[in-house]
Design brief:
Chains A, B: Belongs to the ornithine cyclodeaminase/mu-crystallin family. The structure is a homodimer of 329-residue chains. Chain A is an alpha/beta fold and 329 residues long. Chain A is built from eleven helices and 15 strands. The longest helix of chain A has 18 residues. Chain A is globular and about 60 Å long.
């Protein structure tokens, strides 16, 4: 049985898919679909390989109305930097939702995950941040710190960004990059309490295992997107802050209670909110922020639905650009 | 980060990897590793897509001592034959077990699964069938009926094979193929009771949801390999037969109790055996068949360890044959 498979490499995907409003909109569609309850999204398959200080996660989701579904494989091997290799890699495979045949291999080394993760932050900001954001703050100084702020800036065009990190030089470097890329004022801020005090939108992007954002720093008119915790053992937000916000929103409740900030809040006895509201339900019209003074928080663990959405978008963008090659399997 | 990825198509894999003693031995190594308890094998990720009468399964396993680990994606879309397409497809991705980088994409459309599944039947026959098998019987008339008998014949060179199927013409066609391929006597047998009575080794290879092999047909000196049931709802073997055999062996107990014949036996209250023995433990030296008159049964649901073993073997065989192409991701 001959079947044509489209193969795209990381460099081709970087050219064809950008973190732009189109990417944000396609990821918002994924959340809208999640909000209908009709998405089929099994639990994440996860395998740790302690001998190699590695792990691998597999995510997937079927979204009615999308022609394909993606299966994403994300290895993280944390001794790789010693070998001069990146810790995170991986690929997405796009299958026809009608026949199950492989349609495309997206050899993105994690690039599409970076884009869809940042795009989810923008969806959260679009629906939950105050209408006017003058200053945004980011905790963390890596790839997602840069991308989350770039994505949020598309939906809330703030004029200033503050960057906090444990390593002051990395925070300065991140601020310089953001200033250059977004054409806005950007500073490193050594005091995380001051960063939160001066921001209307804060994104946490670290692999922290102890809270880096304290409940006593919350203030009216603040939105927080916490995207760092995607595994048991990670925790960025003080459990008391989860209890104190006016509205806590999960990307997927069943994932957040195991892998997100909600997990720690439940473990600390701080969660009294019952079944948490999901971002998809808010995209579908359930109440999000209802006044400018509220404090909101969105807990992002990363969903297979986002992967299916970005993979579908990537294939169509790459085809339109004439990129990639076909092999007959 | 440039990373060279080796790509192999189904036709290249069919040339490089055969169902031979080498494939059986590599799959036996996977079971031996499972028997040490050191294999890391997470539960199968499974997603049903009822709208398309489809499903997709993802399996993986890390085996200490193997350079790579495979992630296998197996879609089954059961309306495909109406479109002139095969129901089963899929691919394997081989990752470095040291860095998590993608090493090879094996676009096998399920071929390597066919081989590793039949090879597991041969491992079961090698350790559990009577030393001398004159007649083998197979229930079912599809690809696995042919491959299981071919694999079993490598380890127990019987001179006669009987084939039963619901469709007599398919049984005749399967028997003709087996006679031609193995150079032995082969007949269709319309009466499954007689097939079992005349065989020392029986392999069941059907998607049956009601038992096709009855407890009252068991006889001394019989070994049964049941490989059809790999999902809830499938059942080939009378639960009373599971209770009646001298030795029941699971490929993986945790899978068989959910997906294999063991599931139905437990549900029917027929399982009194406690923690079942696993094939890997027998490969490692725990008792299997201890006399020729015993009745043994091996329940195969298919393990990620077999996938890692066959994918590693396939890459090395294809490289040795100079097959495939490399792309830089």
């Amino acid at each position: 049985m001959a079947n044509d498979i489209f193969i795209l490499t990381e460099s081709e995907l970087r050219k064809a898919v950008r973190l732009d409003m189109e990417a944000i909109d396609v990821v918002e569609q994924a959340f809208a679909a999640l909000g209908t309850g009709k998405v089929i999204m099994p639990p994440i398959l996860s395998m740790a390989i302690p001998e190699a200080n590695g792990e691998v996660d597999v995510k997937t989701a079927y979204i009615p109305g999308f022609d394909g579904f993606a299966i994403k494989v994300s290895p993280g091997f944390f001794d790789n930097p010693k070998l001069g290799l990146p810790s995170l890699n991986g690929l997405m495979i796009l299958f026809s939702a009608r026949t199950g045949l492989v349609e495309a291999l997206l050899l993105d080394n994690g690039y599409l995950t970076d884009v869809r993760t940042a795009a989810a932050g923008a969806v959260a900001a679009r629906h939950l941040a105050p209408a006017t954001v003058q200053t945004a703050g980011v905790m963390g100084t890596g790839v997602q710190a840069r991308l989350q702020i770039a994505a949020a800036h598309l939906v809330r065009p703030f004029s200033r960004v503050l960057v906090w990190g444990r390593d002051a030089r990395k925070a300065q470097s991140c601020a310089r990059d953001l200033a250059a890329n977004l054409g806005i004022e950007a500073h490193a801020e050594a005091d995380p309490a001051r960063l939160v005090a001066e921001s209307q939108l804060v994104v946490t992007t670290t692999p922290a295992e102890e809270p880096i954002l304290k409940a006593e720093w919350l203030h009216p008119g603040l939105h927080i997107t916490a995207m760092g915790s995607d595994q048991e053992g990670k925790n960025e937000i003080d459990p008391k802050a989860i209890a104190a916000v006016d509205l806590y929103v999960a990307d997927r409740a069943s994932q957040c209670e195991k892998l997100g900030e909600l997990r720690t809040a439940i473990a600390a006895g701080q969660w009294k909110g019952g079944q948490p509201r999901e971002l998809g339900a808010i995209v579908q019209g359930q109440p999000g922020r209802t006044d400018e003074a509220q404090i909101t928080l969105c807990d992002l663990t990363g969903t297979g639905a986002q992967d299916t959405a970005i993979a579908t978008h990537a294939l169509s963008a790459a085809r339109a650009a004439g990129a990639g090659r076909v092999i007959e399997s």
